[in-house]
Automatic annotation (TrEMBL):
Record-given protein name: Helix-turn-helix transcriptional regulator
Keyword Transcription part of the UniProt annotation: yes
SUPFAM superfamilies: Homeodomain-like, Regulatory protein AraC
Species of provenance: Paenibacillus hodogayensis
Stretches assigned to the HTH araC/xylS-type domain: 201-299
Keywords attached to this entry: Activator, DNA-binding, Transcription, Transcription regulation
InterPro entries, per database record: AraC-bd, AraC_XylS_family_regulators, Homeodomain-like_sf, HTH-like, HTH_AraC, HTH_AraC-typ_CS, Tscrpt_reg_AraC-type_HTH
Pfam families named among the record's database cross-references: AraC_binding (PF02311), HTH_18 (PF12833)
Length: 309
């Protein structure tokens, strides 16, 4: 603890503010007496290991039955075994496992170090999310450090390091947010980008991962390395939509999902998907789906799987 952590890439100012340049782990045992929560956080941290003495076995960890560990490699690499399958965990790779189960993760002899970000969760909703994700994508997952789940996990760590998670309800809220971002990342519809130019693929993936923060056309076009007008023509040629239409489609897909699966207010949903003005969000939603968000939820208009233009 206290050793400096150096990411395997040149960090942005935001990443530096999240990581805070140090290894810190935080435990939230006080949250066990928080009634009414479906997910809770046992611990979160950034850590680094240098010796092969580090080994966590899923069948021998006492007092952790019903817990789920998500551990994401930042630099170096570790190894994991899930039943008979062995994997190396390099940067941008994570393991998501249940305790107890037949797994172990460790620093192998041929690795000098393993720096990782982790969260330990428990509760009935965690198991549901874990089951859905691992049954389809496996226990070893690939996520960019700029992906929404990892940004959320870094934000949880930042808040823990600044003592902003002071009660069980706040811990539960942040845990739920992390799980929702994981589900969104893995289950949101994404197009088949085979044969698309790399710049367009990157722009589309950026929009899927950052739809709530995307600031506009200029930001997305600048990232492509193309001129604004060449980017616009190329984007529409391959996606069939303008950038505004594509971003709106993603946001409406997310609005439908949140209206179906959460009790969040329309105002909160608007803010979560990138609209500062909930009235404007309602106008856009109605223009595309033919009903207001309130009508969609109350009338159980469940036929919309993905928004089309």
């Amino acid at each position: 603890m206290g050793k400096q952590w150096f990411p395997p890439h040149i960090p942005t100012e935001q990443e530096l503010s999240y990581a805070d340049g140090s290894l810190q782990c935080f435990s939230f045992r006080f949250v066990r007496n928080t009634p009414g929560t479906l997910v809770q956080m046992d611990s979160v941290g950034i850590d680094e290991r240098f010796t092969t003495e580090y080994r966590q076995h899923g069948l021998t960890r006492r007092g952790m039955d019903g817990h789920f560990v998500f551990q994401y490699t930042l630099s170096g690499f570790g190894s994991c075994r899930v039943r008979d399958a062995v994997h190396e965990l390099h940067p941008n790779e994570a393991i998501f496992v249940k305790i107890p189960s037949d797994h172990e993760y460790y620093l192998p002899e041929h690795s000098e170090s393993w720096a990782f970000l982790f969260i330990n969760l428990y509760g009935p909703y965690v198991e549901e999310c874990w089951q859905r994700i691992t049954s389809q994508f496996g226990h070893v997952l690939t996520l960019d450090i700029d992906s929404s789940p990892i940004r959320t996990l870094l934000e949880i760590h930042r808040q823990a390091s600044q003592f902003q998670i002071r009660d069980g309800y706040r811990a539960s809220e942040m845990s739920y947010r992390f799980l929702m971002e994981c589900c969104r990342h893995f289950f949101t519809f994404r197009p088949n980008t085979e044969g698309w130019p790399p710049a367009i693929v990157h722009a589309v993936m950026y929009m899927h991962d950052n739809y709530a923060q995307a600031e506009g056309l200029e930001q997305i076009a600048a990232m492509s390395g193309m001129s604004k007008y060449h980017f616009l023509r190329t984007f529409r040629r391959f996606t069939g939509l303008t950038t505004v239409q594509y971003l709106t489609k993603i946001r409406m897909d997310q609005a439908v999902r949140l209206l179906r699966t959460t009790p969040l207010s329309v105002e909160n949903i608007a803010h979560q998907i990138g609209y500062a003005n909930s009235s404007y969000f309602c106008q856009v939603f109605r223009s595309i789906l033919g009903v207001t968000p309130h009508q969609f939820r109350s009338n159980e208009e469940r036929s919309h799987d993905h928004i089309t233009f």
